[in-house]
């Protein structure tokens, strides 16, 4: 069983993934953490340093390494795996394609207003907006991003779940019920 959680920034993929992995005795991998481990920089640092191109390249390399280890012809890892992906994966078709070959793509769909509120609260904690929202009206920029990315996630997903403000346990139950059928 390999489950790949996709969705926008701040949908709760890492929280859901950690708990889902614990519940199913699976290994948990967060691609953002894997990127940091592999190149020594966070996705945000990569984006700030080299824009979306650098971030996408490192994300692709991390996803390719996961595929090679878990699903490729010379896979060395066995057992169940839960992967939480970064919010920009929808704009990296090569990386998304690799993960789609590995297992079940689960799209955690969360309404725009909830996500925008979470992004703004995160920006307050961090002391700045993410670079991709800094020029112009952040709400409109995020809306454009949301519409573009959510359409890709919905089209590529094997399973779509509406998260809203549901607790992670409720989403995990639904994932397990739907994957078992």
What does this structure look like?
- With 181 residues, the chain is an alpha/beta fold.
- The protein has one domain (2-180): P-loop containing nucleotide triphosphate hydrolases (Rossmann fold, 3-Layer(aba) Sandwich), CATH 3.40.50.
- It has seven helices and five strands; from the N terminus they run βαβααβαβααβα.
- The chain has helices at residues 13-24, 31-39, 43-70, 93-102, 112-126, 138-156, 168-180; strands spanning 2-6, 27-30, 81-84, 104-109, 159-162.
- A five-stranded parallel β-sheet has the order 2-3-1-4-5, with helices on both faces.
- Helix 1 packs across helix 7 (168-180) and helix 2 crosses helix 3.
- The chain is globular.
- The mean pLDDT is 92.
Write a brief structural summary.
The chain contains seven helices and five strands.
List keywords for this structure.
alpha/beta, 7 helices, single chain, 181 residues, 5-stranded parallel β-sheet, 59% helix, Rossmann fold, 5 strands
The CATH architecture comes to: 3-Layer(aba) Sandwich
- Order of strands in the sheet with the most strands? 2-3-1-4-5
- Main structural class: alpha/beta
The main sheet comes to: 5 strands, parallel
Q: How do the SSEs run, as a string of H and E?
A: EHEHHEHEHHEH
Q: Give the CATH class.
A: Alpha Beta
Question: How would you summarize the topology of this molecule?
Answer:
Elements: E1 2-6, H1 13-24, E2 27-30, H2 31-39, H3 43-70, E3 81-84, H4 93-102, E4 104-109, H5 112-126, H6 138-156, E5 159-162, H7 168-180
Parallel strand pairs: 1-3, 1-4, 2-3, 4-5
Helix pairs in contact: 1-7, 2-3, 3-4
